[in-house]
Amino acid sequence: MLEKIKAFLKLNNNIEDELLETLITAAKQLVKSVTGIEYNEADEIYKLLICYLAAHYYENRQVVGEKNMTEMPYTIQHLMAHIGVRGENEPGNI
Q1: Residue 26 domain-assigned?
Q2: How far, in Å, CA of 91 to CA of 93, rounded?
């Protein structure tokens, strides 16, 4: 997943790999806590959601900013809702 996130963010070095791993873990934990669904390596929609979440966390690392951080971007909300509604009917579990 690390290489996928780095490609998504267009990062070509290993300087922030530890941070990215932490963001990936946080993203997976958030999705599980919101939807109740565990990460599934075969699920491309779940992987895309983790990419968006990790990128969102990475790009909004400042403590104080101009953006309202109480709301997630629509794409993240949509993918999260899709996984929640779909439930356990994930690829690889059918």
Answers
A1: yes
A2: 6
Question: What are the percentages of helix, strand and coil residues in the chain, rounded to 5?
Answer: 60, 0, 40
Q: pLDDT tens digits, residue range 5-60?
A: 999 999 999 999 999 999 999 999 999 999 998 988 899 999 999 999 999 999 88
pTM above 0.85, yes or no: no
The number of distinct structural domains making up the chain is 1
Helix 2-9 and helix 17-35, axial crossing angle in degrees, nearest 10: 100
Q: Which two tokens stand for residue 10?
A: 């267009």
Amino acid at 11: L
Residue 21: domain span: 2-61+69-86
